[in-house]
Design a protein that fits this description.
By secondary structure, this protein is of the alpha/beta class. 31% of the residues lie in helices and 25% in strands. It has seven helices and ten strands. A hairpin with a 2-residue loop joins strand 6 and strand 7 (146-151). The structure holds cytidine-5'-monophosphate (C5P). Belongs to the IspD/TarI cytidylyltransferase family. IspD subfamily.
Length: 225
């Protein structure tokens, strides 16, 4: 079954305090998007749909060409929310695709093994697959300046991407979604499907603020592209 990976890269990245939209900020000589594409393109033969900020489509195409796999990369324009951007990406998925992964470009250093685990679980029959990591901090429910209660972390997990789905299930869930969900797994769960977990990876952290960018720079300096 053919795989497509929708890479959402249309966020503004205001929390990064950079001049360019987040996907085009440099980690080293290469942008977040370039690094994200390197991981995604390790999935053999997969179609890759890059969802770019409006006005930055050509820049995204240039990154795709530099990756050396432009023939299997499509670029579409994103929307005002992540969910709208994913929806735009899904509209460009080839008709013969049966497994769709949705991935944040902001998780630019996600290693290929995570893609492999997610795809294998979807191929084995899971309607939806979510990479997760354990919660290591003690978690508190708070109300303004006071602690309300502790929360048992043993049944909590940190959700990452790529999240993978059977294509028909993801398309139908997006058609029926009537509000914004925090991620694709939540949207598909709301449509009545069980989401299976697989191990995530610390390197799949989301580059959100300046400290995350520093972490990404340190990692890449240790293992250049
Ligand atoms: O804003 P946040 O960090 O949750 O964004 C996660 C991913 O979703 C990023 O890769 C970002 O580029 C993407 N996104 C998008 N369109 C939006 C908002 C976010 O493609 N409107």
């Amino acid at each position: 079954a053919r795989v497509a990976v929708v890479v959402v890269a249309a966020g503004s990245g205001t929390r990064l305090q950079a001049a360019a939209p987040k996907a085009f900020v440099g980690i080293d000589a290469h942008s977040l998007l370039a690094h994200a594409l390197r991981g995604v393109l390790a999935v053999p033969r997969a179609q890759v749909v890059v969802v770019a900020p409006a006005g930055r489509e050509d820049q995204a195409r240039t990154e795709a060409e530099a990756s050396g796999a432009a023939a299997r990369v499509s670029v579409v324009t994103g929307g005002a929310t992540r969910q709208a951007s994913v929806r735009a990406g899904l509209s460009a998925v080839w008709s013969d695709v049966e497994v769709v992964l949705v991935h944040d470009a902001a998780r630019a250093l996600t290693p290929p093994e995570v893609f492999t685990r997610v795809i294998a679980a979807v191929r084995a029959g899971a309607p939806g697959v979510l990479p997760v990591l354990p919660v290591v901090d003690t978690i508190k429910r708070v109300d303004a300046d006071f602690v309300v209660t502790g929360v048992d972390r043993s049944d909590l997990a940190r959700a990452q991407t790529p999240q993978g789905f059977a294509r028909d299930i993801l398309d139908a869930a997006y058609r029926s979604a009537d509000r914004e969900y925090t991620d694709d797994a939540a949207l598909v769960a709301a449509a009545g499907h069980r989401i299976q977990t697989v191990p995530g990876d610390e390197r799949a952290f989301k580059i959100t603020g300046p400290a995350d960018l520093e972490r990404a720079r340190a990692l890449v300096a240790g293992a250049p592209m």
